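pinging the channel bc i need a second pair of eyes. not urgent but kinda urgent?? the chain im working w is below, pasted from the shared doc
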Amino acid sequence: MGIGIETALRAGALAAALALTACANMPGGGGWTPLVDNGRGMEKLNRVGEADWALVDGALQATKGSGNAYLVTRESYTDFVIRAEFWASDDANSGLFMRCQKPADINDETCYEANIFDQRPDPTYGTGSIVKVAPVRQPPPKAGGKWNTMEVTLKGDHIVVVLNGEKTVDHRDRKFASGPVALQWGRGTVKFRKVEIRTI
């Protein structure tokens, strides 16, 4: 009788471990924290600047505003991976801002900016670059008019950007060690369907 109970307990523990492993390997599992999920999540972010952010067809969308506008996390992050599914119009100016030093004053001087800007006048830091830190190959990739996935890894001084499966930046820089992250609207139409972050 004792052996039966012990066997059952072992089987239960094994099943639980397998379930946890399966969950960790599922999209959104494995320590990922959603910031935007099917366009929802704006209530967890602070607004800086003015833009018409709204939930439209399962995406967080902005089409107009006054100057640059941002949605900023309330938490600060040091070493992490951030992954965003986004759509941008051809004329859009947007980006993922990371390790921001001044959460109320977001810009490419006080944060690392993974750029989304196909029509940037100087394409050196166009789409796929880290502005003023790590240029992108020329001609830069284009994100306009389609859904894209951008993944940025920051671990210590190492920064890696992958856009639609292609590595666009692999660079080392010690300027910023930690800080909030932010989503930008600068011009055009920008939609964020899913944004998630995982500390490493």
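so The two ends are 46 Å apart (CA to CA). and Confidence is low (pLDDT under 50) at residues 11-29. — does that match what u expected or am i reading it wrong
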